[in-house]
């Protein structure tokens, strides 16, 4: 079997994936009713050969594709052929894993400067004056 490249030094053996062909849902006529073109991909996170950091990050995700048993389930049925759906499922798995291991930059809260606060308040005052002039006129 082949391997999936997740990053420049991390690869995932496709033998760890459980890929099965199923019939697609929805309307589509005879092709949908006869041909198993959709792909059902299952990937057990705990029993995988992924590095510990990857596993921890994946297990910490609150994604609907990850079951309580910590198995990633992806159903691909967008395309008409089994090969395209298989490629789509594998691509979505790689994106899920790579998205989980990206470390977000820590946000540093900032403060508006005194001059920007003053400009904001001045513009609000001017707008309020202009609006007050639109009211009823006393004669």
From TrEMBL:
Entry-linked Pfam families: RF-1
Record EC number: 3.1.1.29
Record's keyword terms, sorted: Hydrolase
Record GO biological process: rescue of stalled ribosome
GO molecular function, a single term: ribosome binding
Amino acid composition bias (Basic residues), ranges on this chain: 126-139
Prokaryotic-type class I peptide chain release factors domain span: 23-39
Sequence similarity: Belongs to the prokaryotic/mitochondrial release factor family.
Protein name per the record: Aminoacyl-tRNA hydrolase
